Amino acid sequence: MKFTVQRTLIERVNAQAVGVFIFEEKELFRRQTAALREMIGPAASPLESGFFTGKPQQVLPLYPADHRVLILVGAGKQSQCTAEKIRRSAALAAKTARSLRASTLALLEPDPEILSSSPLGQDGRLWETTGAAIAEGVILGLYRFDRYITKHADAEPDITRVQIVTPSASRLRLLKRGLEYGRVVSESTCLARDLANAPANEITPASLARKAAEVGRANRIRVRILTEQKIRALGMGGLIGVSQGSARPPRFVVMEMNRNSRRSTVVLVGKGVTFDSGGISIKPSAGMAEMKMDMSGAAAVIGTFAAAAKLKLPCRLVGLIPCTENLPSGTALKPGDILRHINGKTSEVDNTDAEGRLILADALGYADRYKPDLVIDLATLTGACVVALGHAAAGMLGNDEPTMAQLREAGDRTYERVWQLPMFEEYEKLIKSDVADVKNVGGRWAGAITGAMFLKNFIGTYKWVHLDIAGTAMLEEATDYTAKGGSGFGVRLLIDFLNHLKKTPG
Ligand code: BES
Ligand code: ZN
Ligand code: ZN
What we know:
The protein is α/β, with parallel strands linked by helices. The protein has helices at 26-40, 83-99, 112-116, 126-142, 169-197, 205-219, 228-233, 237-243, 296-310, 356-367, 383-389, 401-414, 447-456, 491-500; strands spanning 2-7, 17-23, 59-62, 69-76, 104-108, 161-166, 222-226, 251-257, 265-270, 272-276, 316-326, 338-340, 346-348, 374-379, 394-398, 418-420, 438-439, 463-468, 474-475, 485-486. Strands 7, 8, 9, 10, 11, 14, 15, 16 and 18 form a nine-stranded mixed sheet that branches. A six-stranded mixed sheet has the order 1-6-5-2-4-3, sandwiched between helices. The mean pLDDT is 97. One zinc ion (ZN) binds at residues 273, 276, 294, 355-356.
């Protein structure tokens, strides 16, 4: 899809579909629709019915005599206009255009006067943020995972060209800059979605590692893939233990960017379980297919690297991805087994379905060799986190309040929101083991928290944040710009966070 910003007037726009943001306040609504009436005359008469009022999610296609379709989308109230509202209405315009089989789409910039006195206008980078939000809404909204569906003649064709239209040269420049950022983070999010949505017979530990390497080659990121022998030699007992039930050997991926930068070092760790059957503690068959997405943390890390490289972020970034399947077999890990991890600590496996923490333990231990300022891990770790927060926010736990506050702000800006859960010492005893240093499950209560309490045993001396993305990485129902399935959660959040990171080390 070609995506540009054009300086022209609405009358001159060359596109089959033209999207217009319409705001809801009576006075603004009247002003905006009067201008349209003037332009398209009787074709605007459906407005008279009063059904379309500019509320969010409302859409009204109009058919002027010039063979284009004018798609009015409700942008909601000016007084509540945020980047998120723009993302959502841009997605609606794009999806409507596609369903009408338009292959080219123009989106008029939202009215500058309206926008500048809205909450979004307080942003300071109003037009960059707007350009980014439009790109995000369109690209993420149009995403579909149809690679495995044999094409039918009645399938909605792709939109091949999108343009944002402004009459102003100065806004053109800012919209362009924003568009470029939005395009990169959205395409990288779609990459993460593709990885998560692909079935587990395509994405295996070895092929996931290869995908990371491919992304590395395309973006000049150094990628190393450690194979079983090396993983064993490093003492990664957790990753070896979880993988031993599968015929496919594990991989451990190391991605590195800006290796010689003197800026702060951030390590991103992603859970890469390419299929989680539960192992010997096997899951019920209903819904098990969803566990092909148990590598969504890994997908987010790979997507973040792709975006960070394209945007030339200055910090030194390291990505660590333990890749394995979790399957039952005659050689599988068993309840009661004791594993020794890379940092020498042991864990008692009480439930083989709590496998994510076992492999993350080794990755968090391995991270210490980079002397990082900060380590963020992303993992579809616990069903308990989904029970607690649903699909609207990821669980966030860690040892550094300022970093978590920054992540929370990045989450509010990107709408990939995170919500902190506590790590009170009282939770420690829930994962006490009689036979090892720590046990991999904590019983019925506070499951998302005991998962993080387990991980805490394996971190080094760095600042650390754990994001439990079990609920946000995969959606059971589509939202405005996220189809059902993998959401690519984490890419936009982390890039925004890294972008706002202060420039000096420490
Ligand atoms: N991959 C699952 C967690 C999960 C659940 C992700 C639902 C996405 C949606 C994880 O490995 C797991 O099975 N966790 C167990 C932990 C329990 C045994 C302590 C769980 O949540 O039930
Ligand atoms: Zn599991
Ligand atoms: Zn899992």
